[in-house]
Structures are given as C-alpha cells and as structure tokens.
Amino acid sequence: MKRTLLILFVLCSVLKAQTDYRLDTLMCRYIGPGTVYTRIKASAPWDIYVLRIDLKNPYIKVESIKAKDRYAGRELVSSMAARKSTEGHFALGAVNGDFYDMSNGKTCNIQIENGEIIRTPASKISTIGFSSSNKPMLNFVSYSGNVIASNGVSNRISNVNESRGTDQLILYNSYMGDATGTNSYGTEVLVRPVTAWGANDTVKCVVEKIQNGAGNMQLTPSYAVLSGNGTSASFLSNNLKLGDTVKLYQSVTPGLSKLTQMIGGYPKIVYKGLNYSQQGYFDEGGPDHYANLDPRTGAGFSYDSTYLYLVALDGFENGSAGATLNQLADVMISLGVCNGINLDGGGSTTMYVRGAVVNKPSDGTEREDANSLAIFSSAPTKA
Description:
mainly beta; eight-stranded antiparallel beta sheet
C-alpha cells in the first residue's frame, strides 16, 4: 500500500512541472487496475482531465467503439461505454474519438473495433491503434486485402462497407447495417470466422452461404459477406463452395501484427517527445481551428509505449478558456506523452470515468459522437 501511494504521489507531482503553465493537481486517484484519473487546474486558465493507463496491466483492454455499432451512427460517449460494460468487462473510462460527418455519423478515417474493420483509411491522416496485446502505434496507414480460396486462388478485396463497383470485391460486416444493400448483379458469400478477427493477421473463415444474382444479403454480427461483381463474382462462384475454409488477410500498413483497435485523429501533435503540432498541421492540411482556443481531446503514449494518456480540456466557459493545438501538445508532453494525436474537439470533447461524464461539454450537454476510445477492466470484483 505504501508503495502504491508513493507512485501516485510522484505521478501527481510530475503533472505540476515541465510546462510554461502552472498546473495544479486537484484530484489524483486510481479508478481501476493500472488506471489513474487526474483532474488539473492550469493558469491559462484550463480545466484538464487525464486518464493514465498502464498498457502492461493484464486486466486492461483498450477498445474503440463505433456509435450504435453502425458505420453511419452517432451516440453519446457515455452510452457507448455503458452498453459495452458487462460483468468481467467493466468500462473504467472513455473519450470521444475521430472527426466525422455530422449528418450521418460516418468517421473521417479508419476504424477497427475488436479486429473488424469498419471503414478503410483516409490518405495521409493520422491514426492511433492497438494490437491484441495493447501495444500502441501512431501513423498514417493504407489498406489492402485478399481472399484466398481453399484451392489457393486469390482475389483482391477492393474495400470494406462501401458501394460495390464494377469487378470489385467488397467485404461487408454488420457495421454496415442489416444487409449489404447491393443490387442483383453479382455473387455474395456469407463467411463465419473460426479464428479471431484482426488486421495484419490471417483470419480463417468457413463458407456458410452462397447467393448468386440476388444481392442485398443479410448481415449477422461477427460474420462477414464477400460481395463480388463481374470478375470478382466469377472468382467467388468458381472457387468457393459451401463448407470450404477460406483465408482473409487484411493489411493495414505500416501497422502492428494482430491489430485489433484503431481510430483516426487530426493531426499528430506530439512526436518523439517534442511539440509537432505545427508540422502536423502542414503534413495533414489542417485543421482550420489549429490556432483557436477550443475544447480539445487528445490521446498519446509514453516513450516506452507502456502508458496511454487520454486527455480532455474544457473550453468556452469562464473557468477554462480552451486551448490551441500547440498548447494541447505542450500539456500532453508535460504529462509524459512521447507520441500523441489530436482527436475531435469543440462540443465533442467528452471524458467518461466510471459511470459519469467528468468534464463540462461546451454544448451544455453531452454531444452524440461517431466513435470513442475506451478502457475496460476484466479484474474480478470483490464479493
């Protein structure tokens, strides 16, 4: 117990240093295995909320959550975390995620949730991702995919959960909706995974159903549909049979092996422990609110990749003026972030901790967002 209190004291003390702004720790407490929640008041003035997560802790799991489990959907961060929280899978905390189309809730960049790719990446826009063992990464990424039939013949996957074009093979999953929405000019194959979903890993699937010339095949959670037109339809018809085991390999590069979680952000603002916000702005072409004093959300990890930091900073209120991206980067560096990304801010900025939103959303109430990054504990509860 004394050692735990000493570690907590040192952590809270460090938050007061290493920045031009005075940072006063108002609260610092463990909220679960390897997870510390800290509330900070800064002289700027800012109200800052921080989750520091030990990625080595065996009870901790980092997960992305898609609003309403739909590519096109919006939902409160608190609702996303609460509905995914179950016995043995308890939501310790969460923050809002990627930028998105407010008209439909489609994210601007890739998302992977528990190994299932919801959409493929945007070009040269930053992402933060995690392997099945919680190893983090931050990079621009690209997508490619292949289906390999049991006879060794393969076909390229053109895209995920998007409209099917001429000669294309599209992979659909239940995040698309209840059905693929395709026309009758093609072949569709329902496959059931027999190994865990994940990018940069071979996923084995069994062929459950084949449908020719009908389209709009029904989608089932955790299953996938391979939908082909033209030459890709011929590949499916000629090479896949009921009961066959096929292999899917979806590559997200540069990326980690067994990549299971990923969301986008915009832009990278901390790189190798230095403020990268200005260069990130030029590299990624924005955002246009770079220099505004806005509410902000950020995520980043430590030099040795063993700690994840989730940060929310309030704005548009008397007690907290909001920050520029340059200022957010400085705050994140002071916390111990080596590589960090800016997530959606403004009215979207939300931090959820053990059942409650702890920051003050600038809309006056919590906004429905497109996705979130959440921390879950599998630690046993005391009787």
